[in-house]
Amino acid sequence: MDTRNSGFNTKLVHAGIPDDAHGSVVTPIYQTSTFAFRDAQQGANRFAGTEGGYIYTRIGNPTTVALEENVAQLENGFGATAMASGMGAVSTVYLALLSAGDHIVSTDSVYGPSRGLMEKHMSRFGVASTYVDTSDLANLRAALRPNTKLVYIETPSNPAMSVTDIQAAADIAHAAGALLVVDNTFASPHLQKPLDLGADLVLHSVTKFINGHADVVGGIVVSKTEALHKQIRAMLINLGANMDPHQAYLVSRGLKTLALRVERAEQNTHQVAPWLEARPEVAWVRYIGLPSHPQHALAGRQMTGYGSMIAFELKGGTEAGRVLMDNVHLAGLAVSLGGVETLISHPASMTHASMPREARLAAGITDGLVRLSIGIEDVEDILADLDQALGCIKG
């Protein structure tokens, strides 16, 4: 079935599924390390690229390719490359596109390990980096240098929930001769399509919303052009950070319900966020669906929904946050997000613990910030859980 002109939900269910001799309605798991050739000439042809087909699972596998084709269609890209983890996707992008002497500008509140990899390791190979609040485009313009090759933004950002104007960032990057990469993990392709807004590459930790069931780790990069797709693919093959077939099968299975899950979780969040904002224990709430969010209007223009991620701080600061997290029962105290279950975490001591405190605070990641990933449970149960946990805070 050709799904390129189909609707989003039809693509979720049908895009990328290969023809199967036995008529399987789902993508089969090709759990093999290598593929036999018909004869020596076919093997030579496949290695030379003059004949299609598979060689070795690190280079490509039908189960993984099915997922890649599906996500590429969802993001309106030329092609996608699946990796063993979200950080595998980040690493592949950095290594494929940056060389010694190059410079990258990125969102200051970007996912902690994405920043840590650049500042602690890529810097050893002569790559410089600058981290700014990219929601203010003046900061982005000021940070550019003649050797800037990459503008890497995360929007909405993790966990500060800042929103960057993707189209404007693309224009600024391209005018400076740089590429724009967007980490679209928090939104998913259901809510935001960065390539349509001018980005060159979009990446996801598929561990989160795309898989959606907290049982798989994975990453994917979608390229706008064939040339970029070939660059990313070649680097992945050499790194060996490929996704395995069983991973790809599970992600493909989870992906089919992406829209249903995202929409249900967002419905819940539209009730939880204002409820938190009205609580006397809460100092502030950052949810892009609230009119109080500074980029609420921008998010409404470049996204089709506001998602299910909330950041907030309690008036009692870090200690009050600890009491809250120690007393929830329905919400799991765990890192990660985007699953069917509600999760709560403390970024300053968990996902962003490796960041120097001054840099964390400058990025809006305060010591008391609590991150909530709202799930698809009955919203009354989510609110009841938060209510009893907040009631444990003294004074």
General description of the model:
With 395 residues, the protein is α/β, with parallel strands linked by helices. The protein has two domains: 8-255, 3-Layer(aba) Sandwich (Aspartate Aminotransferase, domain 2), CATH 3.40.640.10; 259-390, Alpha-Beta Complex (Aspartate Aminotransferase, domain 1), CATH 3.90.1150. Helix content is 39%, strand content 15%. A seven-stranded mixed beta sheet has the order 1-7-6-5-4-2-3, sandwiched between helices. Strands 8-9-12-11-10 form a five-stranded mixed beta sheet. Helix 13 packs across helix 15 (379-390). The protein is globular, with a radius of gyration of 21 Å. The N and C termini lie far apart (61 Å). The mean pLDDT is 95.
Describe the structure concisely.
Helices cover 39% and strands 15% of the residues. The strands form 2 sheets. A 7-stranded mixed β-sheet has the order 1-7-6-5-4-2-3, sandwiched between helices. It is built from 15 helices and 12 strands.
